[in-house]
C-alpha cells in the first residue's frame, strides 16, 4: 500500500466510520472494498444502498461512498 493509499484510507475511516476497508488483489486487478459494520434496512436496500461496495481504485470507492451517502440522506437515515 502506498503512502497516498494509506492517507486516503485514513480519510475514509474518518468520514465514513460505519465501514471496514479492505484491499483484495484479484488476478491482474487490485480491488478496494468497503463493508458496512451494520446491515441496512430493507427500505434502504430497495433505494439502492448496499452493505458492500467494491471498486477498482480508492478514488472510485470514495465516489461510490459519496453516492451511497446521498441515497441514505434522501431516506433521512
Automatic annotation (TrEMBL):
<protein>
    <submittedName>
        <fullName>Uncharacterized protein</fullName>
    </submittedName>
</protein>
Amino acid at each position: 500500500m502506498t503512502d497516498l493509499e494509506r492517507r486516503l484510507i485514513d480519510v475514509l475511516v474518518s468520514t465514513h466510520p460505519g465501514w471496514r476497508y479492505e484491499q483484495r488483489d484479484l488476478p491482474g486487478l487490485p480491488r478496494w472494498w468497503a463493508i458496512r459494520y451494520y446491515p441496512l434496512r430493507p427500505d434502504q436496500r430497495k433505494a439502492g444502498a448496499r452493505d458492500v461496495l467494491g471498486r477498482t481504485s480508492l478514488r472510485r470507492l470514495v465516489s461510490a461512498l459519496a453516492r451511497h451517502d446521498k441515497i441514505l440522506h434522501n431516506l433521512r437515515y
